[in-house]
Amino acid sequence: MTGEDYSSRLPTEMMASIFDLLAQPDVLRVARVCHRWRAVARSLPTFYAHLALKTEDLDSLPAYRQKLEQYTRRMRDAAGAGFRLSLTLNVQWDEDLISDDSGSYNSRDTHNLDKSMSTLVHQTVIRALPEYLASIIQLHVSLPQICFHNLQKSLVRPAPELQSMTLDNLDDGDFDLAIDLFSGHAPKLTTLRLTNVGLRGKPSVPALSAVCSLHLEYYTDSIIPHIAANFPALQHLTIEDLDSAEENAEDVSLALAPCCALETLVVTLGVVERGLPVALEAFLNAQSIPRIYFRLYYGYDGDVGVAVGSLLARFHSPVHLSLYLLDETEKDAVPEPLLVHEIAGRSGYPTGSHLVIELHSVDNNTRLTILVDHEESPSVVGRVVSSIPNLVTELNLGLADEEDGQHFTSLPQLTILRVYLDTLDNRYGWEIDVFDNHGPAVRCPCLDQVVICTSGRYGLERLQVIRAILREFVLTDSARPRPLLVLQGEPLPELVTSPLLLSCVRGITVGPRHAFSKTAECCSTAHVSLVSG
Predict the structure, then answer these.
(1) DSSP assignment, residue 243?
(2) Are the CB atoms for 325 and 398 separated by under 8 Å?
(3) What pLDDT sits at residue 47?
(4) What residues does 417 pair with on adjacent strands?
(5) Dihedral of the alpha carbons of 268, 273, 274, 280, in degrees to the nearest 10
(6) What's the confidence (pLDDT) of residue 28?
(7) Which positions make up the signal peptide (predicted)?
(8) Which residue of 3, 351, 501, 502 is 20 to 30 Å from 220, comparing CA positions?
(9) Is residue 344 part of a domain?
C-alpha cells in the first residue's frame, strides 16, 4: 500500500528552500523524482551540469580526437536536457605525440603538431561553444596560446548567465583579451581569473564591467595600470607571482587611477632591489584599501626589508601590531595564495614556517598582513620596530626566537601587551630565553596592561617566563603606575597569588580564554590618541 506523498502539499517556495540546502549533485538527483520536483530544482542556481575535459593522460592523436568529440556530445546532450553548463576545458599536448622510436623530433614537426592540434580543438569543442554561451554559468579554460585566437572568436555572443570564468594561457606568449568579448554583455560575470592573458588600457573590455573578484597570475606590474579601467566594480584583487616590468623600473612618478570599490588586495611577489615594483607602489598610493595581504620573498637582487619599510611608511596613526610565527591554527585566516611559496626555514623550524606581521590602523580600521620566510625574520622585525615605534599602542607578540626579541628598545605609546606563551615554550625544542639576558628593558612608559595568553591549566611552571616578560617591558623604577597583569585561561591559584608576580604589577586578574588567535582581528577599533611628550 503506497502512502500519500505529503511533499506535494508543500508550497513551491518552501520546497525551493529545502532543495537549496542540498549539495549540487543531490539537486540533480531530486530533479529526477517527478515533474514538480524538477521544475523546482531548475529554479535553483545549483541546477547545472559540470563537464570537465582533461587530456594529460592521452598519448595519441586518435585518443585526443575521441576525447574531444565525446566532450562535445556531452555538452550537446546536457544543454538539450535543459541544464545550465559548468565547463572546464584543459587541453595540452607535448612532442611525445610525434617523436619516433628514438624519441627524436624537430621544430618543423612541432609546428605541424601545434597546428594540427589547434585545428582539432577548434573543429570539435571551440566551434561548438557559441551555441551554448547562453546556458554557460562557469567557463574555465586552459589552452596553449595557439588555440586562443579561435577561442576568442567563439566568445563573441552574449553570455547572460556566465558567473565565473578562468582563461589560462599555458604558453609564455603575449596577446590581449578581445574588446568584443561576449559582445560586451556578461552582466552576471563577477569572478574572473586570468593567467598570461593581457589587458588593454584603452579601450576597456565592456564584458568585464561587473567583475568584483579578480585573480591575476604570472604578470609583471605593467598589468596594474589597466585594472581600474577594465574593472570598475572590483572589490577583491589577487595578484600572484607578480614581477617587476623593466620599462617601469625607474618611473617613480607613475600615477594611477584608483579602484574605488576595492576592499581586499592579496599580492605575492619576489621583491626587487628597490623594494616594491613601481606600478604596484603607485597603485597602493592611489587609494586606501581596507584589507591588504602581502607575501614577500626574495627576487633577483631584492631586499625584503626595503619592501616592508615601503609598506609601513603608509601608516601615520595609532596601530595595533601583531608579530607571530604562522602555525596550523592560524593558516585558515590567511588567503591560500600566500601559503604557496613555502620553503624550509632555519634549522629547527618546520618546513613552510612564516613570520606574520599584521598592522591594524585604529583610526580607519584598515589592516595590513605581511608574510615572510622565518629565516628573514630578524631583519624584517628590526625594520618594523624601527619604522613605527611611536605608533604602536597594542602589541600581540608570538615570536619564538631570541634574535627577534632583540629589536625592541622603546615603545613609548604602548598601552596593552599580549604575549602568547604557547609560541615561546619548548614547542620547537628550544629553551625559553627570548626575553632574558639580551640588554636593557624595553621603554614602555604608557603600558597599562600585560595579558598572558596560553591554553590549558598552568601554574608555577610558567612563573619564570612571565617574570622575564615583565622585566622586559615593565620599568620597576618608573614613577608611573605599574600595569595590570591579566592571566587568561586556567591559571592555578598558586600563580595568581605569587608574591614574585605581585611585586612587579599593580594587580593580577584572571581573564576568559578567548578564541586562539594571535592576529589583530580581535582588537578594539575605538579611536586611540597618542600621548604627547
Answers:
(1) B
(2) yes
(3) 72
(4) 395, 450
(5) -30
(6) 75
(7) none
(8) 351
(9) no
Q: What is the identity of the amino acid at 82? A: G
Q: What is the pLDDT of residues 10-23, one digit of tens each?
A: 777 877 777 778 78
Instruction: Show the DSSP H helices in 388-532 as ranges.
Output: 402-405, 421-424, 463-473, 493-496, 499-502
Q: Has residue 208 got a pLDDT over 80?
A: yes
Cα separation, 310 vs 296, in Å, equals 12
Give the whole-angstrom CA distance, residue 439 versus residue 201.
Answer: 55
Query: pTM of the entire structure?
Result: 0.83
Q: Whats the size of the chain, residue-wise?
A: 533
* 427 is a domain residue: yes
- Region of poorest pLDDT, from 170-174, 315-319, 419-423, 434-438: 434-438
Residue 516: predicted pLDDT: 44
| Residue 169 DSSP class | E
363, 385 contact by CB (below 8 A): no
User: Within a domain: residue 382?
Assistant: no
CA angle, residues 140, 187, 235, in degrees to nearest 5? 75
Residues 443 and 426: their CA atoms lie apart, in Å, by 27
For residue 260, how many other CB atoms are within 10 A of its CB?
A: 11
Q: Are 381 and 407 in contact (CB under 8 A)?
A: yes
- pLDDT tens, 250-270? 555 567 888 989 999 999 987
| More confidently predicted of 164 and 477 | 164
What is the per-residue pLDDT for 245? 79
Residue with cell 593581457: 198
d(CA 266, CA 286): 16
Question: Three cell numbers at 418?
Answer: 599580549
Q: Are strands 264-271 and 236-242 parallel, antiparallel or unpaired?
A: parallel
Number of folded domains that form the chain: 2
Reply yes or no: is the peptide bond before residue 203 cis, omega within 30 of 0.
yes
Query: Rounded to an integer, what distance in angstroms lies between the CA atom of residue 451 and that of residue 522?
Result: 14
Mean pLDDT across 477-483: 76
Q: What is the predicted pLDDT for the residue at 272?
A: 66
pLDDT of residue 528: 39
The residue segments making up the domain with residue 430 are: 392-519
C-alpha gyration radius of the chain: 29
Query: End-to-end distance of the chain based on CA atoms, in angstroms?
Result: 89
pLDDT in tens, 118-156: 999 999 999 999 999 999 999 999 999 999 999 999 999
Q: What is the chain's mean pLDDT, rounded? A: 80
Q: What is the 3-state secondary structure (H, E, C) of 268-329?
A: EEEEECCECCHHHHHHHHCCCCCEEEEEEEECCCCCHHHHHHHHHCCCCCCEEEEEEECCHH
Q: Is residue 327 part of a domain?
A: no
The 3-class SS string of 207-231 reads HHCCCCEEEEECCEHHHHHHHHHHC
pLDDT of residue 329 exceeding 70: no
